[in-house]
Amino acid sequence: MEQRTFxxxxxxxxxxxxxxAGQILATxxxxxxxxxxxxxxxxxxxxxxxxxxxxxxxxxxxxxxxxSAPVERPxxxxxxxxxxxxxPTTLAGLxxxxxxxxxxxxxxAPAELAALPRAARVIRVDARGIASAERSRPNAVLLGTxxxxxxxxxxxxxxxxxxxxxASRRPEAVASNTRAFERGRTEHEVMEDVGHAEGDVPAAxxxxxxxxxxxxxxxxxxxxxxxxxxxxSASRTGSIPVLDREKCAHCGVCxxxxxxxxxxxxxxxxxxxxxxxxxxxDYRYCKGCLRCVESCPxxxxxxxxxxxxxxDRLRVPLFPGIVG
Length: 324
Ligand code: SF4
Ligand code: SF4
Hints:
Layout: E1 6-13, H1 18-32, E2 36-43, E3 51-59, E4 76-79, E5 99-103, E6 121-125, H2 127-134, H3 138-149, H4 155-167, H5 173-186, E7 189-191, E8 239-243, H6 253-257, E9 263-267, E10 276-281, H7 291-295, E11 301-305, H8 310-314
Parallel strand pairs: 1-4, 4-5, 5-6
Antiparallel strand pairs: 1-3, 2-3, 6-7, 8-11, 9-10
Helix pairs in contact: 1-3, 1-4, 2-3, 2-5, 3-4, 3-5, 4-5
């Protein structure tokens, strides 16, 4: 390794194990490989289903790590869910000769990856497919892929750290994690002619548009309703709540527990039992946390595998004026 830190960013959704993977990697580097290392993650208030970034810095024993800032110019980015590729900040800051690893089944490369540098190495691995087949987690697969891509990350040490993490808590997971790790190490695909950009990918702005010096007087938000354009569909990990109106008692418990105001209400029929009735769900804002399913007292909401186009077909728009 050259005399600077090697920096990685894991881009993920809460629940796929990015934080644990970062912790295992840094632990293996520091305690087993004699390197310097640091790791931390950033995530929102509701971990499951919301965006998470995990930052790892590694250096030889002679290279001190003096910062704990987020990694903005990574040498490697690992993406735990292909849906995150729709967000340009997922690619942000990758160095021109960096490595980009993403989870997706075989198929054409997404058009978004053209924004990667021409010289970048792009690696695809079906992490969730392998994890499902081996009864493991995507993070075990992706750690294996990382070790395959970067031989200085000694696979034995990383695998031992992974095993140690689970040996006491879930000993039955050790064998399946080992298989998943090994398949990730050997079954990934280096893709050709994917990135078409020159130079590094520009880093995302590290400063918020509004800070204590630039915010409007009194903290006024001059653009009301601006979060109506949010699209959280990329945060889902494979399941959505589906409403059966026949079973619904219109009690509103689902709306109380939903962190993202996804439920759409309308007038009940004249002379009916309810003045307001639950019409459906706006999946544009749904991150798939499934709190509503757990809370519904009548079973009107069911956890359902999200197949292609299902959410679009069932969506009841909260703001019908918003297109797309
Ligand atoms: S919690 Fe269940 S029964 Fe109550 S309004 Fe929501 S879907 Fe209907
Ligand atoms: S609709 Fe249900 S699954 Fe979607 S964000 Fe709200 S509580 Fe979570």
